[in-house]
Amino acid sequence: MNILMIGAGNVAWHLAPALEKAGHHISIVYSRQLENAQLLAQQLNNALATDQTDFRDVGADLALIAIKDDAIATIVKQLQLPNHTVIAHTSGNTPLQIFEHLPGNNDFGVFYPLQTFSKQKLVDFSSIPFCIEALNSSTETFLFDLAGQLSNSIHSVNSYQRKILHVAAVIACNFTNHLFAQSDHILQKEGLSFDLLKPLIQETVEKAMKNAPHKTQTGPAVRNDTRVIQDHLKYLKNNPSAYQVYETITESILLWYGSGENLID
Amino acid sequence: MNILMIGAGNVAWHLAPALEKAGHHISIVYSRQLENAQLLAQQLNNALATDQTDFRDVGADLALIAIKDDAIATIVKQLQLPNHTVIAHTSGNTPLQIFEHLPGNNDFGVFYPLQTFSKQKLVDFSSIPFCIEALNSSTETFLFDLAGQLSNSIHSVNSYQRKILHVAAVIACNFTNHLFAQSDHILQKEGLSFDLLKPLIQETVEKAMKNAPHKTQTGPAVRNDTRVIQDHLKYLKNNPSAYQVYETITESILLWYGSGENLID
Q1: Residue B265: what pLDDT?
Q2: What is the ipTM, given to two decimal places?
Q3: At residue A262, what are phi and psi to the nearest 5 degrees?
């Protein structure tokens, strides 16, 4: 398959070589910054770098848009593609409808690898979930087949479900990271190292991943241990943001696991 | 060394064989439930099981109390030990002073492995942090040496610091687990599987563990992306506990990373 890679950021940086490895040819890498396109094109076999958006004379089966969410609408208006080229973006937050007013008459879809990428770190795509959505079933099959060459975890996920996935990812990933930061900060203030907690954190996450997390809940809130909760809140009273987080999540756990009454106030 | 294991729960279940492997002899396993003591003793070499607390006629270098926090005070009053036997508990939440009114005249300390244990799962003690505290420096050295035979991560941690460690562990582990449960619940309601998020969660945790977590913060809150935050809150409005958690942690992230103003209300 002949592929145009629109973008040269973290996602493109990992997807392009993986697609090559699966036997496809990345003929062109586009970036608004020509140097970025060149950097990625150099990693590939016979790929040209460009900052131009007219691809009408290029033979391509797929144009894959892997750029920042807020730049997708703009590039979609600029891209000029042969009519048979399928166009797909790799964004978790961008609805399929962004392609509705394409200047051409191309089939379109979403090809979203649900993972965070950084340039320095090697990526094993085989276990990364791909969320696929498409204008029609032939395009969906086309994108399913391609994703299936990279990964064992391919899912049909519509734009609404992708939004819910994003809410859930913010809670399970971004918020979790902030809890780690809060915890680290509390320890540092007392001259203790966050390293002390790392084995426990890893074990906690491992258990939650293997079982349903609502079955692995431990701690003072689920035990309804008011004495410990009050003691911790007393300690946190000079740390308003940690206090607020402690109180809110404790209340949520008490609510979930059925203490019935609010034991914090 | 001759060791009395006071308790036959999860911690004792893993510590006793590890101490044997390090060359020590668990002479007696005590439990209030004789059958539990017997179950653990059967796993060991020449260990006796008992539900009696008079050990005055037993030669023992160390009595290790590995029982539930709220039962420690009671057992400390009941235990009768030879004067030279050091007594230590394995609890993260129990101060050293619990030993102040020992009936005998024994040296005492804390021997706290900072990890969660379950009977089914094998434990590699070598990377588990041991937090040591003791009445005097000779007892501290004694417990440091013993912990050093099990693990490479031994720390002098006083009772106040242990309390702070507990606050930090509740936030980084118990609360994190609840975020996973909230996320899982949101996905299930929409017919999506939590499995979809697991690779992303694992990568997020790995990044936070390798770097300082305040440097790996991503998501709409740290980007100050009010449109996405409002959209997510709107979606969560019929899920009060998730709404509350989303709002509080988002506010905390905004506060930490300096948006300066409250963008949620």
Answers
A1: 31
A2: 0.91
A3: -80, 115
| DSSP-derived pairing of the beta strands A108-113 and B86-89 | unpaired
B128 phi and psi angles, rounded to 5 deg: -80, 125
Interface contact B157-A192, CB threshold 8 A = yes
List domains and CATH numbers for chain B.
Answer: 2-157 (3.40.50.720), 162-256 (1.10.1040.20)
- Is A101 within 8 Å of A73 (Cβ atoms)? no
- Tokens standing for residue A65: 């848009």
H/E run at residue B54: none
The beta-carbon neighbor of A184 closest among B177, B214, B235 is B214
Quick one: pLDDT at residue A120? 84
Q: Is 80 exceeded by the pLDDT of residue A209?
A: yes
B173 touches chain A (CB under 8 A): yes
B68 in contact with chain A, both atoms CB, cutoff 8 A: no
3 state DSSP class of A262? coil
pLDDT digits (tens, 9 = 90+) for A93-112: 899 999 998 888 899 999 99
When CB atoms are compared, the residue of A116, A175, A204 closest to B173 is A204
CA dist., res. B142 & res. A42, Å (int): 60
* Euclidean distance between CA atoms A146 and A140, whole angstroms: 10
B73 CB within 8 Å of a chain A CB: no
Q: Mark yes or no for CB contact B194/A213 under 8 Å.
A: yes
The angle subtended at Cα B127 by Cα B121 and Cα B133, nearest 5°, is 105
For the stretch B124-158, pLDDT in tens is: 999 999 999 999 999 999 999 999 999 999 999 99
Tell me the nearest-neighbour CA distance from B224 into chain A, angstroms: 13
CA max distance for chain A: 73
The residue of chain A with its CA nearest to that of B207 is A177
